[in-house]
Fold this protein.
Amino acid sequence: MRRTTTWSIALVTSLAISGATGATVASAATTIAPTAAAAPSATGATTHDPTTARLLATIEANRPADWEARQAAALDRFGVERSAAQEVVERVIDPTQHQCAPTRLNAYVGGVLAKVDPEVFAALAGVGALDYATYDAILFGAQGAPGYALPKAYANELSQSFRAAQRFWDTDGSDIQLMAMHGDVMTDPARVSQVLQVAFGVPRSPADAIAGAVVELVATDPGLEGGQSPIFTLNAFAFTAAGETDPVLRRIPDKLVFGDGMLAALQAIGVGDVGPRAVLGHEYAHHVQYDAGLTGSPLTGAEATRRTELMADAFGTYFVTHKRGLALNAARVLEAEQSFFQVGDCNFDKPGHHGTPNQRLAASTWGWSVAKAAQKQGHVLPSLTLDAQFEAKLPELVAPDA
């Protein structure tokens, strides 16, 4: 079963930019229709210069009429669940009993997006541009390739932690590639066109036209920092194509990918010291789930995704705080996780629901407590044993205000 699991920045949807979505694979399900030309002001004048208006019009003119269907097909193809209302879940999960307040991450992302022309942002989001780097890394990234190398500031730390995870868990992670994704894809029309053609099935001619306009828009809007804005790479994810029959996907190796924007966000919210390693622990835990067959459950919709994510939170913290794992300081790890697990959400009716901030912290704290209990003997629980303990604990972890 193939799956692409993201370190969700879905809370971007709460920001005051009309229809804006976060730069994650999961958020690609939400479509923002671009505007063909600059909007008129109160005096009747347009709000954009002729170049920007032309580029917006080019994107609109070449975007396939069935774009939403193509985008949905890409989500299915890459194993990402759609974001669609689930009435049954709404009846099961009561949002009035959970806490989801604005967080430091909200403020950080809001500050990033405030620099960008809202109409330009909407046009880019409307053709999936916030996810081009993600699809590019899945389809074309390779460990060791210069264009996908980990940032120097994090390379040693993440590589060492990755190797430690491979040794720690009882699943075979030798086939997983660790790499990065960078915003430079947004400066290359050929790479953008390739993503549009392969991921979304856009014919070459309109793909080339959209790609050229997107790259030029990115270059002309100062807030997008020439493609280096965090909004293009605000993501980290685990990918597997195990059991895939699609001839394109079946050749892709298992991957664990870190986006520059995600690393920048962790630094900005004050958890740059342990946050990246904790995220690595979470994402590697998804590969443990894939390999040990722990992704399936009787749960459906949002509750199923929440279970998967909370398990990864618990497994990841178990690894990073365990004596035979990374042995990170538990107090600092939990402090950091309280910050970056603020990406927890209250989208109870969405299959992409990752759990509330309180639930995610509770799962992480439980993982640490299990590791702490094993400190004296240094024993590492088999993944299936840890899963059995987690399943028994799950009802308590998801209780209101956990």
The chain has one domain: 3-273+283-293. The first strand starts at residue 3 and ends at 6. The CA atoms of residues 5 and 237 lie 5 Å apart.
